[in-house]
Amino acid sequence: MVFAKTLTGWYLKNRRELPWRESSDPYRIWLSEIMLQQTRIAQGLPYYLKFINAFPTVFDLARASEENVLKLWQGLGYYSRARNLHFTAKHVAFELNGKFPNTYKELLKLKGVGDYTASAIASICYNENVAVVDGNVYRVLARFFDIDTPINSSQGIKEFKGLAEELLDKEDPGTYNQAIMEFGALQCTPQLPKCESCPLSHACLALKNNKVHQLPVKLKKAKVVKRYFNYLVYRSNENTTIIEQRVGKGIWEGLYQFPLIETPRLLTTGELIAHAEFKSLIDIKRTPVSLYNETPVVHKLSHQHIYTRFWIIEKVGKHPNHIPVAKIQDYPVPVLIANFLKEFDFGD
């Protein structure tokens, strides 16, 4: 109980003023928690404000097109979160009459809502006694109690969840849950923890045993896969280009891109022109081709690194999928294409 009260006291003095903390509306808490999964607050906050402005209620979000949702989400990454967000908004709005479930167990049934998000909403909005466990909580508990069980192992997940439940302030679980997460984010940080000003330092076992920077322990990730993307950027003399929508269950599902040829390695211009897929798309006798960036843009995702080069295809004729260059900004695209569009000049 002393542990919980100490954290809550620290939180009330040091917490950041964030818009979702001014509300107990489950829609706003849910939206913020989904957006902040694997995302820093500094990055997620502008997106949260954009979404609340565009979709002030769950009904507004439910009525939006998926394309509009993805466009507003553009650049935040992990786009399955946006698709799940939209799916769940429609479920809550049209099947639950706009009312979010009010228990942890029922919240878990919502698409895209896992243990952490359900615990956060249930405790903050409904005062239910369920503990949150995110990266910040893992770090605080691992250090304070000197626990070296890997946090991403099945044993570690169970162990830390159980410990978090034991420490939970049953009188005010919502405030306590926010306190321990904020403490990990601001005080017990990954690289430069502020141990000298920590209100828990007198009892922190990692500090006592000189293991602060060794904890928490995490099992090594799977090997990173390298992928090589060749985007074909059509630039016609009528100021049009070609984009297509990504389909399937891979990365960036539902986003738009230039026609893509994926290869097992970087290609020379000659190798690209000789590629069967390239030949099926382009009449090379009539179409000049040039490489825009010799050095590939490396886009790093959790389990894959994408090496991307853009090939400029000049002055092609009419094509069924042509769109005016000015319209391309209306489509949701992966951030690496958004960055390309900021610097590339399609001409008049």
TrEMBL record:
UniProt keyword DNA damage, yes or no: yes
Any Pfam family: NUDIX_4
UniProt entry tagged with the keyword DNA damage: yes
Record keywords: 4Fe-4S, DNA damage, DNA repair, Glycosidase, Hydrolase, Iron, Iron-sulfur, Metal-binding
CC cofactor note: Binds 1 [4Fe-4S] cluster.
GO BP terms, alphabetized: base-excision repair; mismatch repair
One annotated GO molecular function: purine-specific mismatch base pair DNA N-glycosylase activity
Domain HhH-GPD: 35-186
Required cofactor(s): [4Fe-4S] cluster
Gene3D superfamilies, per the entry: Helix-hairpin-Helix base-excision DNA repair enzymes (C-terminal) (1.10.1670.10), Hypothetical protein, domain 2 (1.10.340.30), Nucleoside Triphosphate Pyrophosphohydrolase (3.90.79.10)
EC number: 3.2.2.31
Reaction catalysed by this enzyme: Hydrolyzes free adenine bases from 7,8-dihydro-8-oxoguanine:adenine mismatched double-stranded DNA, leaving an apurinic site
PANTHER family reported in the protein's UniProt record: ADENINE DNA GLYCOSYLASE
Function, in words: Adenine glycosylase active on G-A mispairs. MutY also corrects error-prone DNA synthesis past GO lesions which are due to the oxidatively damaged form of guanine: 7,8-dihydro-8-oxoguanine (8-oxo-dGTP).
Family in the record: Belongs to the Nth/MutY family.
Protein name: Adenine DNA glycosylase
Recorded name of the encoding gene: mutY
